[in-house]
Amino acid sequence: MERFARMLEHGFSRVGYRVEIWQPVTVFGSLFDNTCAGIRKWFGYIDKWVLFPMVLRWRVFRISQGIPGGHQARYHICDHSNAPYLPHLPAGGTSITCHDVLAIRGALGDNSVYCPASRTGVILQQWILKHLVQSRSLAAVTQSTITDLRTLANREESGADWRVIPNGFNNEFRRMESEEAWDRLAGFRLSRNQPYILHVGSSHPRKNRGMLVEMVAVLGKSWTGQICFAGMGLDPKEIDRIKALGLEDRVVSMIKPDHETLVALYSSCFAFIFPSHSEGFGWPVIEAQACGAPVIASNRSPMPEVSGGKALHANPDDPKDFAGKLLVLQDPETRQKLVHQGLENCQRYETGTMINAYLDLFGLKPIPQA
Which of 24, 164, 258, 312 could pair with 52 as two cysteines, CB 3.0-4.6 Å apart? Predict the structure, then answer.
């Protein structure tokens, strides 16, 4: 979550606040090289959960004693997985962002999130949950997340200030002109004369990206475009399935494209397909909308919430449902309407809006600039 922390740092600095990012320093973990990855991981836990809490307490003490008004400093934990740091920071001046509770749900036996946990992982997630639900001030990135968290906490409401603050864009996403986009895509196996559907992400089971292949197989001759997977490379099972369906010539894999290439892909695709079983937020949905791509996404939370209802949604277990939604986009009027609505939805995720919401959570206001 370093990128998120940097977003907050930049945003708060722009409105006049001094910001510091604190993170654990590798001490014990540095004693072992990559050939001892297992041992290195466990000694890294000493750095994170033993040494760093002591550093936190010392820094908080120094700030309260050494800076005029230091007792009014605000502390924010940028990721819920670090909730065990809460007891080491001032309760009245500390808040936390909860990006999702998928790992916690998985550790508690919820198979629908596709996040299984090891025995030690179960213990870790229970420890995180124990501290997370005790937070007095919390921002969840979606309503779905805060609802799940209240369920896990076994309470509907509390005296704590828990609120929804959606993520802001962490990079510039825009509609790239066709000529520029196809210039950037030159050299890849995408054809300007043939439409393609796009998925951005990994091969993790919860991403369900194999749905694109199954959907195209269902469509048969009704849709003869290409399939582009951007992000992590195809795994052996995915390759075998593509071959079994005879789609090798229609599948393009682009491993870790740079940002401008990604914008070009979003801007030029016939549709962006996001059939994920579970997400904390679902960044690609709004990235695609911001680039003018019509979106077909899973109907599982939080995708409809993030899309603002300005995407088509389908059952991630049903290729026929996704196939039917793709055919709907062949109507130019429907397609254009969805693109326009998607661009409007993205205005909710301006970074400045997010920063102002966090200032309000902290009880702060922008500092007038001289």
Answer: 24
Query: Residue 130 domain-assigned?
Result: yes
List CB contacts of 157: < 8 A, sequence separation 6 or more.
150
Q: How many domains does the chain have?
A: 2
Cis previous bond, 68, omega within 30: no
Kindly report the number of other CB atoms within 10 A of residue 129's CB atom. Answer: 21
Q: Take residue 127 and report the two structure tokens written for it.
A: 């420890």
Shared domain for 203 and 273, answered yes or no, is yes
Q: Which CATH number covers residue 296?
A: 3.40.50.2000
Q: What pTM did the predictor assign?
A: 0.91
Q: Kindly report the length of the chain.
A: 370
Under 8 Å CB-to-CB from 335, ≥6 apart: which residues?
294, 329
Structural domain including 335 reads 178-348
Q: Cβ neighbours of residue 37 under 8 Å, at least 6 residues apart? A: none
Model pLDDT, residue 207: 96
One domain for residues 72 and 124:
yes
In the prediction, which pLDDT does 68 show?
59
**Rounded Cα gap, residues 88 and 94, in angstroms:** 10
| pLDDT exceeds cutoff 80 at 52 | yes
The DSSP letter of residue 344 is: H
- Name residue 296's amino acid: I
Q: What is the pLDDT of residues 56-72, one digit of tens each?
A: 999 999 888 876 555 67
Q: Report the side by side order of strands in the sheet with 137-140.
A: 75-77, 94-98, 137-140, 161-164
